[in-house]
Amino acid sequence: MTTLTDSTDVNGRSGPERKRTAKPGAIGSRQLVAALPGALSKLDPRRMWRNPVMFIVEVGAALTTVLAVAEPFLGGPARSGGAAVPPSFTAGIAAWLWLTVVFANLAESVAEGRGKAQADSLRQTRTSTSAHRVTGYDPAVHGGAEGQDLVTLSSADLRVGDTVVVVAGELIPGDGDIVWGIATIDESAITGESAPVVRESGGDRSAVTGGTRVLSDRIVVRITSNPGETFVDRMIALVEGASRQKTPNETALGILLAGLSIVFLVVTLTLNPIAGYSAAAVSVPVLVALLVCLIPTTIGALLSAIGIAGMDRLVQRNVLAMSGRAVEAAGDVTILLLDKTGTITYGNRQAREFSPLAGVVESELVRAGALSSLSDPTPEGKSIVDLAATTGFRHQGSLEGEIVPFTAQTRMSGIDLADGSSIRKGAGSAVLAWVQETSELDPAVSRELDDAVARISRVGGTPLVVAAADGHGARRILGVVYLKDIVKEGIAERFAELRAMGIRTIMVTGDNPLTAKTIAAEAGVDDFLAEATPEQKLALIRREQEGGNLVAMTGDGTNDAPALAQADVGVAMNTGTSAAKEAGNMVDLDSDPTKLIDIVRIGKQLLITRGALTTFSIANDLAKYFAIIPAMFAGVFPGLAVLNVMQLHSPASAIMSAIIFNAVIIIVLIPLALRGVAYRPLAASQILSRNLLVYGLGGVIAPFIGIKLVDLVVALAPGF
Amino acid sequence: MVVWLAVLQALTLALLLAVVHRPLGDYLARLYLSQKDLRVERGFYRLIGVDPRSSQTWQSYLRSVLAFSLVGVLSLYALQRAQAILPYSLGLPAVPAGLSFNTAASFVTNTNWQSYSPEVTLGYSIQILGLAVQNFVSAAVGIAVAIALVRGFAAHRTGTIGNFWVDLTRGILRLLLPLSIVAAIVLMVGGVIQNFNGFTDLTTLSGGTQTIPGGPVASQEAIKELGTNGGGFFNANSSHPFENPSAWTSLFQVFLMLVIPFSLPRTFGAIVGDRRQGYAILGAMAAIFAVSLTLLTVFESSGSGTAPQAAGGAMEGKETRFGIAGSALYATASTLSSTGAVNSMHDSFTALGGMMPMLNMMLGEVAPGGVGSGLYGMLILAVITVFIAGLLVGRTPEYLGKKIGPREIKLASLYILVTPSLVLAGTALSFAIPAVRTDVEATSIANPGLHGLSEVLYAFTSASNNNGSAFAGLTADTPWFNAALGVAMLLGRFLPIVFVLALAGALAGQVPVPETSGTLPTNRPQFVGLLIGVTIIITALTYFPVLALGPLAEGLQ
């Protein structure tokens, strides 16, 4: 590779939206029916126990059911709060409590159901295939392993470290790295992207995924994961929610909800002894109804569905999060490290101009630039050859020599020709150091070079310094190639959005500080790291984390792996090496670095949805109090009717309506829980005002209206 | 007339507090952060073997608090049991075991609930060596715990929260003692008595004899209000003319109750390095206080019925020298600040008016609450508020840069669980255990029915919240109430302290997250409003059902 300025080089290829996208949030009746068996099987108390709020409801439902069955034999329902209770009251409460629990389970099942569909399509790629294993393979000696003995075995028997040969038309039997060869591969089974991709040994695009199909050529692959632990296996587990662990915020919210439930349990349990003294005891079904109305059932019912749906939204954007914790961390990110190339600028920089130093003939610079770029497949390399062609340069015959590839450490590339001469091109400081290895640099040349570099840098271009050594090893600088960098359209607006969300963006580039500064200013990033090496990147992340920041980054190369592992959110590109994928906690199947911004958004949306429904749920209590309290003691204290602000029909209908509202609101909110609350990038205080208005004030008002409406219907029931 | 009086005294009070809270709050911040010790302090630290520069972990801090308080309970108990052999005991006998326990628990927990009639139960030595000492130290303990929590917020991954012995010593020597001396002198000028005269027998105008107790009242009175203690020298507390002779001493006492709790938010802001954070807390406290005061004044001014009409207002149980406005202010300040002193009998308030002091305590005593305990109570509610609001803006919630995660929420949830559980369980058990119920109905409750329930509910609310205010009308010197209220006071004080210090430790171990525009701002009116909302929904609504059975039902009849 001849990309001289970046440690990673990902061309921002944003694939078409994923094929398997379902319309988010929309649930049809068919989906509900499909989820019903799952919802019913979740009624098992051993499973309900994990959700304390809904477990309380289930226990209440069981208790009232027993009472409803026993009542007819005990002379009808017990009087409550000094008033008679209609005969069908207990059975009605029991039925609606069961529905409340079922609705909660239904929400979870629907959320899981979407993941299941995706898992099924993934599972088809995991079918066992045959593999051709080669033993005692050494890429330096055996190359394509043409003459080697191949043992055919099932892909299920492959182990880490095995080496296999895959030829055109075959499925790759397992996850691995290409150790020899180059091939086009159809990865649509994983990414949904139908255009084939190129994978080759040695670079940052050497990783292949089991279940994808080789379309052309022959490759040798070293297997990097055992069957059952492959990328697809992990994907399936993730989208199915099997490996779902509660995230820190979800745990914390669960604790708060459990705490509130205990408080209200104490309120309910202590009510009758007290009422027994000053008023009249309340019947058990009414007590259960009071408890269920007060504990935060709405959020309790939807909490896990929100989490599953959040992961699902990521999957729909072709991002796989290895843990829910990472999704949540994405919402908390305060620093984004973005690679310049492919993210902020278009990946393909174009050569615009050859600037030879004084005393160098332009054609010499053109020749050196072109020769060193002939075997360089990157757009930059090609554009240098193209520009050379416009000046009349043609290379005849084949090129004899050894190619010196680009590395992030040397930050230059080139070619050692057969005649003993060599050419290097790369970042100014790197090439300068190379020249100075053998000869002192004339201060005048040094000054002239600095001027040329600075001139290009100031306009945001990338100066590519070209130097050559003759057959005797005398090295000298020829001149500079001006590569023009083009900042992506609309990227500045996205960074402004991020700033509003409280996220700082840092551009990481191998460019010299002057170029970096110009591009940074043009793109509107907050800061930049110029002439970056992987070590500096890692150090930057550590430094920011010391200061309490949460850092997100993308990466694909093996040398990105330490930084990806260190970052709080490390998004590995699917095109990247398996080391990078292993180190990150998310993988973007589209390999689109700008996706990071979407990931942050989804993380925030997940938290906001939880917060919104919690606020709504707690705010609901106010109205429920006004429905139930006057109803509970209406028989003894008619004066409490003043509190019956909703003018509910009768005590029994008031309690019944509160319970029905409580159950129905769960169903009504399932789409919101799955879709997530709308998120717009604004400052925190503005988001808070808006959400408080909708979910706080809305949560206070909605149940007053809802309970009243339900009551109008319940009042028609006989006995109420 | 009542309206103008009420507005005038409220404005006077607000002005006084506004002037004093700045220097006092800043002084407190300097006091608790200072690295310098007085000579007498250094001597004391050497004596007890403490290195004043060493900072404790939360576990160590907690052990010190608990050990110190245990010694307090035991010694106060022993003093009472030994009254017969103490000097200056005015010939009073040893205090019975049950009452001694209750009183020891009461004064060590800064509750100062009095199941007894002081002037006929306790002599001067217990008043001074026992009660007055605890008035100082229990207040200093409360402030120390609050400061420890604030240090947790301000700490940068230190894991330690200060030194309890230093905090305690400084709180007593450099805050409470000097202020009480000044306050006692002012009270004496206002006519509060200060003598060792014992009982004086007089022949009244009508020819009968009357025994009038004297005593070192002014010095007791100063720390009673300043340390939000509230235990009166006389049974009638601050409605007694020797404790509270005039309208202006009454207003001055209200000022003393509120001055430290209302200054601590500024201290908080100064220590965490953002004054506006302190003002947000102060704003929430002040708003709740203003609304509560207004409601009580309105309820009491609009008392209807034959007696109020004849008296020109609901004056039953109120002193004419304080009037409705002065009584309402005193009751509000006393029950919102954890003092529990009274200058009128809350039992005789109108039904809804009588609910207000109870509701004030049920809010968890956070507006402004007791010395120290008010601040830490409000900060716990702020943590809950930040958690809910933080989720609403799409970030892991953080308060002052500290993440509110599972551990922090667990501790905050446990904190808010304690008091309602104690209040409701205590009240319910009083009626659920047949033997106890018989005793409660026969001996303790003066007004059976709804009002009787209010009396019992009030007692447990007062004890569990460490207020000490009594509704009156309830005879609490019975085995059940002495034991149950004593336990409620101890658990209501020390369980929350355990959770607060554990929270302080958890916060102190964190590296603060830098503030960005994505951070939920916790120093704006928006947050203050939210904090008030959470305070009301989380704490007060819990009691709605039981209030409906007592004061609400009575008031809406």
UniProtKB/TrEMBL annotation, chain A:
GO terms for molecular function: ATP binding; ATP hydrolysis activity; magnesium ion binding; P-type potassium transmembrane transporter activity. It is a multi-pass membrane protein. Its EC number is 7.2.2.6. Mg(2+) binds at residues 556, 560. It is found in: Cell membrane. The keyword Transferase does not apply. GO terms for cellular component: plasma membrane. Residues 1-26, 114-139 are annotated as: Disordered. The chain crosses the membrane at residues 52-69, 89-107, 253-274, 286-309, 625-646, 652-672, 692-717. SUPFAM superfamilies: Calcium ATPase, transduction domain A, Calcium ATPase, transmembrane domain M, HAD-like. The active site is at 339 (4-aspartylphosphate intermediate). Keywords: ATP-binding, Cell membrane, Ion transport, Magnesium, Membrane, Metal-binding, Nucleotide-binding, Phosphoprotein, Potassium, Potassium transport, Translocase, Transmembrane, Transmembrane helix, Transport. NCBIfam families: ATPase_P-type, kdpB. HAMAP family: KdpB. Part of the high-affinity ATP-driven potassium transport (or Kdp) system, which catalyzes the hydrolysis of ATP coupled with the electrogenic transport of potassium into the cytoplasm. This subunit is responsible for energy coupling to the transport system and for the release of the potassium ions to the cytoplasm. This is Potassium-transporting ATPase ATP-binding subunit. The gene is kdpB.
